[in-house]
Amino acid sequence: MRTASNILHLGIKELRSLYRDPIMLALIVWAFSFAVYTAATAVPDTLSRATIAITDEDRSPLSTRISSAFYLPYFVPPELIDRAQTDERMDAGRSTFALDIPPSFQRDLLARRRPTIQLNVDATTITQAFTGSGYIQSIVSGEVNAFLRRYRATEQLPVDLALRVRYNPQLSRSWFYSVVEVINQVTLLSVTLTGAALIREREHGTLEHLLVMPLTPFEIMAAKVWSMALVVLVACGLSLTLVVQGLLGVPFQYQGAVPLFLAGAAVNLFATTSMGIFLGTVARSMPQFGLLVILVIVPLQMLSGGFTPRESMPEFVQIVMLAAPTTHFVSLAQAILFRGAGLSVVWPQLLAMGVIGACLFGYALTRLRRTLSAAT
Amino acid sequence: MTSQPTGAAVGTSAEAIARLSDVSLRYGKVCALDAVSLDIPAGCMVGLIGPDGVGKSSLLALIAGARKLQTGRVEVLGGDMAQAQYRATVGPRIAYMPQGLGKNLYPTLSVFENIDFFGRLFGQDRAERERRIAELTESTGLARFTGRPAGKLSGGMKQKLSLCCSLIHDPDLLILDEPTTGVDPLSRRQFWELIARIRAERPGMSVMVATAYMEEAAAFDWLAAMDAGRVLATGTPHELLARTGTATLEEAFIAFLPEEKRRGHQQVEIPPYQAEADATPAIEAHGLTQRFGDFTAVDHVTFRIMPGEIFGFLGSNGCGKTTTMKMLTGLLPPTEGQAWLFGQAVDAGELETRRRVGFMTQSFSLYSELTVRQNLVLHARLFHLPEATIPARVEEMADRFGLAQIMETLPDALPLGQRQRLSLAVAMIHRPDMLILDEPTSGVDPVARDGFWQILIELSRRDRVTIFISTHFMNEAERCDRISLMNAGKVLVSDAPRMLVEKRGAATLEAAFISYLEEATGVGEPGPTAREQPVPAAEGAAHLDARDPRRGFDLRRLLSYSRREALELRRDPIRATLALLGSLILMVIMSYGITVDVENLTFAVLDRDQTTTSRDYTLNIAGSPRYFIEQPPIRDYTDLDERMRSGALSLAIELPPNFGRDVDRRRPVQIGVWIDGAMPLRAETIRSYMAQMHSLWLTQRASRISSEVLPASPFRIEIRYRYNPDVRSVPALVPAIIALLLLLIPAMLTALSVVREKELGSIVNLYVTPTTRLEFLLGKQLPYVALGTMNFLLLTLMAIAWFGVPVKGDFLTLALATLLYVGVATAIGLLASTFMRSQIAAVFGTAIGTMVPATSFSGVIYPVSSLQGAGALIGEIFPTTHYLTIARGIFSKALAMPELATSFVPLLIALPVLIGLSVALLPKQER
């Protein structure tokens, strides 16, 4: 009872402290509104504005037809160049793709000699290289087939592929990246806020002051965990409804998706705030804490499955990252918000986050106890 | 103290060293100086006296040129301090030692390195610096400690070192802001002797001192008494005493105060202490010892304090007082020995005893973000006073400690005296039986201190609260029932103050204390004896040298800042290691994280046909082991839905009934394919893989069915993936990762290095030395450019050795570009630091400000040309974009300078623009 009341009042104190820090508040608002919005909208859907150069050595009706088939928004209008210019343009990174239509392409085609078109791809811009070359192949084939159809009837492919993309039929990136960005901000803020709150108390001597009062390290830590988690949770909920659903118009699968997601976020926050306390006990000063945060946050953001698919990572990375709460959080978020999964599907993730959180909390508490007793 | 008032110098305004007319200064709503006009006589010791927060420090900072003048006129050494030009000229003739122990020092640097740094700033050559440092350390008794880091010195030694740093350039005006606050009596006496000797050698030098110790001020030549931003009275100490008809300056000062402030002040009277016969001691310590490594902070301390007693602990800073108190409160488990509170052994886990103790730490340790009332209520709740009684108790404390008027104020806005009263009120809120107070009155003015003691005495005598207090004010020590003198972790002697004076046959308690100290340390630190010989003749020449520091840009001053920053970086190995090792670790992580090779996708088939043809189709997909991994077959649509929803399947394929037959008969047939679109990038890749494999299967199938070679496609497209033929992520990403890391870490470290100086106070050295802003910024930047370059070499080595990504192009061009890029990155850090005030904001702000544009808008994943809106604009101007073009060009495309020259241009423009902006935004004076 006493413990509960101490935790409550200390937590309210944390909230009041944060309320007096306008810069931090502004950063939180910024992180959950503007940052989410730009991250979601800056990245183009699928292929966009790819640069292509065409060397037309054929100068036939067909080659002209191909050249004019590349247009916005997928491609910046193609530049017609000499063959000699290709290298220079690609070296300077001005063209990602260079298409070379050989002399007498049309004639060879009609004579069924299977002519070859060469496509040069700058493979250093790897995402665009890959999707872009797929687009170019289908555009060129489309034009060639349409051209041929006027001369002779070609046999239709007998087997049709009915491709359907579920959950996000347009493959809109903004749906995905807005949610990923919210998750990233949740992690970053919860770790930084709690860790910095601890270090600030130590630097200002108030931690010592708390220790001479009838309070236990458990109460001090639990108060920070609940209060900072609450702040982030509220910000996350607002961001999800106002920015993601409202401004960006991302449809979630069913009515109860947001509350269930927030429940998952709360469990995740329990783990990440504990992690913040842990880092706060490791770092001796703010600069060290700053570096540590980077070292922890970057892998959490990049290897949790929000940035690239988990399946594509090396196996040991996948296994190691199972210990990170964010891995489960990302898969929970995708399941609930996009695939419309309910509690019956996501309970393993909730359980995993809870267990990880409890371990982190316990370990951070032991460390906090130890550093406090050694505090000078 | 040897200085005597010399009639000629005093009071003659013709010879004023500084002249203030109508000077006012406000910090927000608080008025620090209120239309002050004052002529300060030259060539003598001038004292500013008055309580804390009356404007003494502001006045001195204005005269030193460290703070920006708001209204009025300040003339120092005959010129207008509002003009930057004049400040630059006169700066080297003024030395300023700010308030706070060693605030202008660098704690990780040694004594020698600290003084050396200042010598370099004033353009002294090596021989001269060494001679001066030898002289100064010799005369201050620091000669034996030149190798010790400044942070490990005692308070007195820190102040002496600070003085050495101020005196290195032979100033004409020495400004000392509370130089002896928090310093023990012996060190204090040595400090003033030192000043007197220096003045004897350089009679022309004027000294201005702000002090809270009235006894010290009594020996000065000329005084200005201040209160509430105004000057109350000026004159020699003698004149002030004569005017008020009082015996001591302390009384004289109180007499000068306006009537309403004096009201309520009365002499502190202490009723005698009556011991109870057989009470349990309130505090008992036996052989308490605390060792940190091989340093013994507290050495077998033993004492016993009875209930209701006021027990004083005296000693210099760092003698072990605070450590002893921490052991008593259970904050610090003793290495040896045992302590008891109320007869119970002290145990860190024991909460019950803590409820009976009120504790007040040395520094103000309440929450500055909570109002006075919120602080009181919070602590009442934490001590579990019944909720109903809390408002009444809070009011009671507010009345008793005179806080009623300021209940809704934030502590930061209050003067120190009121904050200390608040601390005491908080410590008393739960009616403890014992108070442990660690230097509660440090920095509090005499009137407030007397008021504070009235409360303590009332608590002790009326409520029988045991009070354990540490102090370095002798008149406070005299009020204790018993005191212990501590030095270097040992208790020298414990007794009633009166008895100590008698035992020692000394005139005052201070004299008695000093004599005990001298006995313990063997006549303290040497010094008085060492400085008999006159200053060498070379000094004349040195004067000229110091007087004429290059006013414009000076490389030596710049390098001296770089040197110091590099030293500090070297002394904090954790920071440097994290920066270097951290980026290697991050590179490994990112190379896995940013991989866009989508592989190992899970798929399953709902095969309604179950013929060899349908199985052949499935095998075709599953047969590409790198891309797809087959899962158990799907039973029905419900199964399909569930497994896709849980994320177990990324791809589901439905082969319709009669699939095989229809294919053979070339009847139109449709295969259903569902792709999990939750992750668009992955879905897109799956779609394209699927389409490719489907057409591959069709071609194979067709050629198997009929002998006729069907033209699957009438032409071929030959794709050449250039620069990275395997289309692997790693070679494409390594240059990008290097670009990211070389931005993030140098920017953050540089920002922190400047903000840290702001937060810890050593930025004042920029304000009061001839250093220009450009020298300061470039000087701080250089070490981090070096660190960044080192980082680059390590990362490149790792790219080659670990990732097998060779540098195909011209390495020299790459190195040149990197140097430029790291320069830009650190300049971004500098620019950020001009906005930030706290270190945490610097960490957070630079992280957000660099990471987002660098990862999203600079072409790391999506080419800049494909971006739209604000992102595209940021991408065009952000330096990472251009460095990335160069890095990729050299790493992957085997290019060299001529092809990449255009990408150098934006970087070459960014560097001076960023540094110019930083210089313009960094103030050369405190605002």
UniProtKB/TrEMBL annotation, chain A:
Keywords: Cell membrane, Membrane, Transmembrane, Transmembrane helix, Transport. Pfam families: ABC2_membrane_3. The chain crosses the membrane at residues 23-43, 225-248, 260-283, 289-307, 319-340, 346-365. GO terms for cellular component: plasma membrane. It is found in: Cell membrane. One of its GO terms (molecular function) is ABC-type transporter activity. The keyword Transmembrane helix applies. Its main location: membrane. Residues 133-371 form the ABC transmembrane type-2 domain. It is a multi-pass membrane protein. It comes from the Bacteria. Belongs to the ABC-2 integral membrane protein family. This is ABC transporter permease. It comes from Neoroseomonas eburnea. The lineage of its organism: Bacteria, Pseudomonadati, Pseudomonadota, Alphaproteobacteria, Acetobacterales.
Automatic annotation (TrEMBL), chain B:
Residues 18-253, 283-513 form the ABC transporter domain. One of its GO terms (cellular component) is membrane. InterPro entries: AAA+_ATPase, ABC2_perm_RbbA, ABC2_TM, ABC2_TM_bact-type, ABC_transporter-like_ATP-bd, ABC_transporter-like_CS, P-loop_NTPase. Residues 699-925 form the ABC transmembrane type-2 domain. Gene3D superfamilies: abc type-2 transporter like domain, P-loop containing nucleotide triphosphate hydrolases. The keyword Transmembrane helix applies. SMART domains: AAA (SM00382). Coiled coil: none annotated. It holds the Pfam family ABC_tran. One of its GO terms (molecular function) is ATP binding. CDD domains: ABC_DR_subfamily_A. The chain crosses the membrane at residues 573-594, 732-755, 782-805, 811-833, 840-862, 900-922. SUPFAM superfamilies: P-loop containing nucleoside triphosphate hydrolases. It is a multi-pass membrane protein. Keywords: ATP-binding, Membrane, Nucleotide-binding, Transmembrane, Transmembrane helix. It comes from the Bacteria. The keyword GTP-binding does not apply. It is found in: Membrane. This is Ribosome-associated ATPase/putative transporter RbbA. It comes from Neoroseomonas eburnea.
